[in-house]
Specification:
This protein is mainly β and 317 residues long. The protein is 0% helix and 57% strand. It is built from no helices and 18 strands. The termini are far apart.
């Protein structure tokens, strides 16, 4: 079986994402996130544009792998270079077709870091729609649907004889559900999203993904930069706003299958405690999130996740 380092790029609506850490399969997530606003608004106003960019730094605990039930490791096989960290940058656009329908596009670029060298590559383009199906008394419920296009790359790595795969090499449909409830200064919001991964590069299967997110934010100062479509009376805006938030993010990744052989050292369930803040000035927002792993169920031999740090820059038009 060809050895690979695999990077899954998934559209998420959470403030943070998770990924696997093993040498043969390192999955990752990055997303254009309604959660980054922490204001409980799932769709934009009609004809409103949002441009956003994110930098997502993720550490990996070398030599701290989870040892599950698996077949003995073949010590004669060539050693793979473990990843030390990843940095995922992304650019995205969102547009409000109506007050109830928002569409978005996101393109990530991934950097890998090891002791033997670094590598990088473009990921899969993500097209996504959010459809607000219910709005009343500051409660919003939305359906989400989209597709991940196979714009990611597959190539030989710069640090060993493995193959770097950024994306899945397939057209992958996605569907989810999101909700939010706003009070005076508090906002509760959450979502669940599933991506069905189809056969990708060289007829291999790189694992479907399911994510869950729940967060509670508190508005310390100012108002939201975005107006809720179910609010008939809008409050006056101040130039400066400040929110803090915390919550939980979970991600499940299926095992990968390469050349009709299931890789037992792939797939996982990871859970993270998240804490962050969002500063805004006029039509600019700057969300910052720190995530710490609290649940790590890795299949087979994989290095554990470390902390991660995510910074966003968001501009509305």
């Amino acid at each position: 079986m060809t050895k690979i380092i695999l990077l899954f790029v998934v559209a998420l609506f959470a403030t943070t994402q998770a990924y696997s850490q093993c040498a043969c399969c390192a999955g990752s997530g990055t997303g254009s996130s309604n959660g980054d606003y922490n204001n409980g608004i799932l769709t934009l106003q009609k004809k409103q544009w949002v441009a956003e960019t994110y930098g997502d730094y993720r550490t990996i605990k070398e030599g701290a792998g989870h040892h599950g039930h698996h077949e003995p490791v073949d010590t004669s096989a060539e050693e793979e270079t473990p990843l030390k960290s990843m940095f995922i940058s992304s650019l995205g656009l969102r547009y409000g077709i109506t007050d109830k329908i928002t569409v978005s596009a996101l393109l990530p670029y991934v950097f890998l870091q090891t002791d033997n060298g670094n590598d990088n590559g473009i990921g899969d383009l993500i097209l996504l729609g959010t459809f607000n199906i219910f709005s009343k008394n500051n409660f919003n419920l939305a359906l989400q649907a989209g597709v991940e296009l196979r714009t990611g790359i597959q190539k030989g790595s710069n640090f060993d004889n493995t193959t770097v795969v950024v994306g899945s090499g397939s057209f992958d449909p996605m569907a989810g559900l999101a909700f939010s409830k706003r009070w005076d200064k508090l906002t509760l919001q959450g979502n669940g999203l599933f991506k069905y991964t189809t056969t990708g590069f060289e007829e291999n299967y790189y694992g479907s993904i399911s994510v869950q997110n729940l967060s509670l934010s508190y508005r310390i100062k100012g108002d939201n930069n975005f107006c809720s479509p179910d609010t008939s009376k809008q409050t006056s805006k101040t130039n400066f706003g400040w929110n803090v938030f915390g919550g939980y993010y979970g991600e499940w990744l299926d095992k990968i299958t390469e050349e009709d052989v299931v890789d037992e050292n792939s797939g996982y369930y990871l859970g993270f405690a998240t804490l962050g803040t969002n500063l805004s000035y006029k039509k600019w927002s700057f969300p910052l999130t720190v995530s710490l792993p609290v649940i790590q169920h890795m299949n087979g031999e994989q290095n554990d996740a470390g902390f991660r740090l995510r910074l966003g820059i968001i501009k509305s038009f």
